[in-house]
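Renewal narrative, Specific Aim 1. Our central claim is that a sequence can be written position by position from structural information alone. The example that follows is taken directly from our test logs and has not been curated for this report. It begins with the structure tokens describing the chain, in the order in which they were read.
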């Protein structure tokens, strides 16, 4: 009969760190030399909280960097946490190919883009492909 595994504080921290790093639980078991069942029974807290603790530490460092003026950290934070995007979303009621020049200009202006100068005719670069009329 084998004795029960009683992990030390250092082993518990090691399990927590491996979980936080995304190492598969089967690999954690192999490294620690225990079965999946034993690891789940003895280190349930470490398995459950390891990833969240690591995310909290990294998140705190990122937030502190952003507060110190690190522009990259600010941009990353705003994209991930505040929903910022670098794309332009244009909402329209019908396909561009079916719009008149006036309708297209209204859509362009409403979305912060330069309108087509109708006095000059079609511009050299059309912002959207359109079917000829």
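The sequence written for that structure reads:
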């Amino acid at each position: 009969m084998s004795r029960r595994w009683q992990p030390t504080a250092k082993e518990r921290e090691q399990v927590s760190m491996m979980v936080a790093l995304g190492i598969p639980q089967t690999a954690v078991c192999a490294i620690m030399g225990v079965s999946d069942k034993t690891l789940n029974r003895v280190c349930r807290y470490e398995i459950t909280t390891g990833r969240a603790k690591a995310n909290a530490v990294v998140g705190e460092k990122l937030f502190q960097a952003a507060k110190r003026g690190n522009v990259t950290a600010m941009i990353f934070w705003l994209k991930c946490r505040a929903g910022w995007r670098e794309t332009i979303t244009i909402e329209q009621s019908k396909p561009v190919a079916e719009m008149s020049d006036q309708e297209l200009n209204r859509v362009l202006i409403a979305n912060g883009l330069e309108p087509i100068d109708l006095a000059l005719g079609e511009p050299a670069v059309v912002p959207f492909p359109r079917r000829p009329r």
